[in-house]
Amino acid sequence: MISADAIRGYVDLMVLSLLRERPSYAYELAQQIHAVTGTEYTIKQTTLYTAVKRLEGASLVTSYAGASASGKPRTYYQITANGLEHLEQKVAEWRDTKSVVDRFIEGVEA
Amino acid sequence: MNVITAYLETMFSAYPQTPRMLEAKAELHAMMEDAYTGYLATGLSENEAVGRVITEFGNLDEVAPQLGISADIAPRTSASTPVSSAMSGPTATPVAGPAKSPVPAPVTHDEAERYAEARRRTEPRLAAAVAMFVVSPAPLLALVTLSTGGTIGLGQDHAVLIGLACLLVVVVAAVLMLVRRDHELARFRRLTAGEFTRVPGVDRWADELAAELAPKRATALQVAIGLWILAASPVLAMSLLAEPAVTSSWIGVAVAGTLIMVATGLVVFISANWAQSVAETLTKTDSNAYAGYAGNERRSIVGVIAAFYWPLVVAIFLAWSFLGSAWGISWIIWPIAGVLFGALASGLSAVERYRAAQ
Prior knowledge:
The structure holds two protein chains of two kinds.
Chain A: H1 4-7, H2 11-21, E1 24-25, H3 26-37, H4 45-57, E2 61-67, E3 73-79, H5 81-105
Antiparallel strand pairs in A: 1-3, 2-3
Helix pairs in contact in A: 2-5, 3-4
Chain B: H1 2-12, H2 19-41, H3 46-55, H4 60-67, H5 69-73, H6 82-85, H7 109-135, H8 138-148, H9 156-185, H10 189-192, H11 200-230, H12 233-241, H13 244-272, H14 274-283, H15 301-323, H16 333-357
Helix pairs in contact in B: 1-2, 2-3, 7-9, 7-13, 7-14, 8-9, 8-13, 11-13, 11-14, 11-16, 12-13, 13-16, 15-16
């Protein structure tokens, strides 16, 4: 089980990488995240909503009004060129972070 | 579904109904609805589905800055939150959108508690100082009429001199007490000046504090109004019941008694009024504060009246006495002022209650 604090800085990365595939709406994003993380991490709805709004505010995603198959109104989010660029940076940053942290924990029994 | 809607309403009720808020509520509601339907489809019972959805809701307070909610009530840069400080690059920009005109920093719970504690501690000092202003002419009045009537072996000039000296000493002591109190409350200046942004949690806390102490305040106000109205009785009793010769020399003492009763009423009321006053300070941010200690009492009409009324009465009394050499009759101002004050205070507090009931 991963704590919310530990993963918090990377929720944006997760959302952007999912939106890279296709535009999506909040609940679908939550489900996709759940499908990948399984029981190890459950994203709170407020955390996810916060993340997409933050990304939207930074012009990394844009939103548009759409509707579900049953006609229910939904807000869809779509990644922007800035968002793609930012995702690349964040992925590179994560690789560096991971490699740096890995160097410290080498030999530590978990 | 109703449980979820009610839950969301409750969670959002603490925040102002701004467009951004309503948008957030609508979208979170849609998410929860989808999640609920999704859980039902996987075979969960209604209760289990509601439970799961609510567990996964999260915490509105924690994420308020990014939701743009706290930007409406308490703007701060998102860089100060753990969420975005863990990030870098353009995403660290606040979601709040274009910077609005600078809004004062929000009041914190801790700050509010410290302010309430300081007010609770220093309010007796305010009460004592106001009371001292009121009783300050008492020695002067008593001595002058006693000496005029020949009850004490003191010339009128000496009586005036000693009485005035007492008045000045008492006024100076009261002013010093107020200055010291002001000094202690100085670090809460932005609160008393209304230069802060209200926060729902602190609002509720302050209102609860005031409500908790409201019965005490009501009793104190009743006692005080009773005293202010009865304050005329020493003078009335002296004028109606005593021999004319006794009355003319002791009337000043009776007036002093009137002043002491008025002052006692003020002590009782002001000491019990602090919680109400704290709540009013914390829940009003319009900056129409008066200067000085009256600012703390600005919503309490009785407090304002007391602060301006009694010094004015003293000024009229002294002017009349000196300019008209009217020491023998000028005391009449005090019982009149006392009764008038009682009537004003009860009338105004009735208006206050009427307004509060609206």
